[in-house]
Amino acid sequence: MTFLDMLRAAEQQNGSMLCVGLDPEPTRFPAHLKGDANKIYDFCARIVDATADLAIAFKPQIAYFAAHRAEGQLERLMEHMRRVAPQVPIILDAKRGDIGSTAEQYAKEAFDRYGADAVTLSPFMGFDSVMPYLKYEGKGAFLLCRTSNPGGDDLQNQRLASVDGQPLLYEHVARLAQGPWNLNGQLGLVVGATYPAEIERVRALAPTLPLLIPGVGAQGGDAVATVRAGWKPGAPIVVNSSRAILYASSGDDFQEAARREALRTRDLLQAARG
Ligand SMILES: O=C(O)c1cc(=O)[nH]c(=O)n1[C@@H]1O[C@H](COP(=O)(O)O)[C@@H](O)[C@H]1O
């Protein structure tokens, strides 16, 4: 089964375009876990249990684990997600990008060590930095294209005078990912929910690629505008929310509150399909 097939199946089964982001920050945990980096697994596993039937994907952000020397807890969490939600693909958010020989190690880490179904990558170093990930049959790779942060403008909105039609850099990335770089149909693109007009532009340039769209919830992106701009039958959108779900309550009811917020966001996204 390809990564795209997995996404389509999870979208159907859970009736969802919502990706639950796993960005565990111990200082924001509920009182009985608060400040304890040894409880990262416990916290995340409870969030997974509460949202397993509501998500098109889970997206653990590797820095939140590595910063606390909690890679072992991430490995356990990957196994837990496989066990309780085998239908939900896992995107390891690592935003890697390096020369080919080093990229081979990063790919091994994402797909062999952690067993992720897809990974996020920076395309800045070019195609040879992306290629090692494409050797893993059935796995996916999302290239940063038009990111959700204001500083995304600094490079992504620069015009490329040397390329036909003088596109903006992010438009060029979208064209490459839809076309010559997408050797086996494994690529997708990351576009911020904070920029719906750019989502629409990326969708026009990359009509068949899955789009990972972070920025609803804590970053204030417009969920309805996101769906209207990016959703097309057959080309999934994976709309990520992390903090708004994880920290919906700081009390002992954090699991129920996370579920309520995930359900609310899932339903809002589904309704916007019209
Ligand atoms: O690749 C990403 O996931 C990503 C790309 C982007 O443009 N913006 C962005 O916020 N992200 C990630 O998406 C998550 C957003 O988290 P919340 O703002 O808490 O929903 C974080 O893990 C970010 O690292």
From TrEMBL:
SUPFAM superfamilies: Ribulose-phoshate binding barrel
InterPro entries with a match to the protein in the record: Aldolase_TIM (IPR013785), OMPdecase_AS (IPR018089), OMPdecase_type-2 (IPR011995), OMPdeCOase_dom (IPR001754), RibuloseP-bd_barrel (IPR011060)
EC number: 4.1.1.23
Keywords from the UniProt entry: Decarboxylase, Lyase, Pyrimidine biosynthesis
Active site: 95 (proton donor)
Pfam families (UniProt xref): OMPdecase
Domain Orotidine 5'-phosphate decarboxylase: 17-258
Lyase in keyword set: yes
Keyword tRNA processing among UniProt keywords: no
CDD domains per UniProt: OMP_decarboxylase_like
Reactions this protein catalyses: orotidine 5'-phosphate + H(+) = UMP + CO2
Pathway: Pyrimidine metabolism; UMP biosynthesis via de novo pathway; UMP from orotate: step 2/2
Enzyme class: lyase
One GO MF term: orotidine-5'-phosphate decarboxylase activity
UniProt xrefs under PROSITE patterns: OMPDECASE
Entry's family note: Belongs to the OMP decarboxylase family. Type 2 subfamily.
PANTHER family linked to this entry: OROTIDINE 5'-PHOSPHATE DECARBOXYLASE
Name of the protein described by the UniProt record: Orotidine 5'-phosphate decarboxylase
Organism: Curvibacter cyanobacteriorum
Lineage: Bacteria, Pseudomonadati, Pseudomonadota, Betaproteobacteria, Burkholderiales
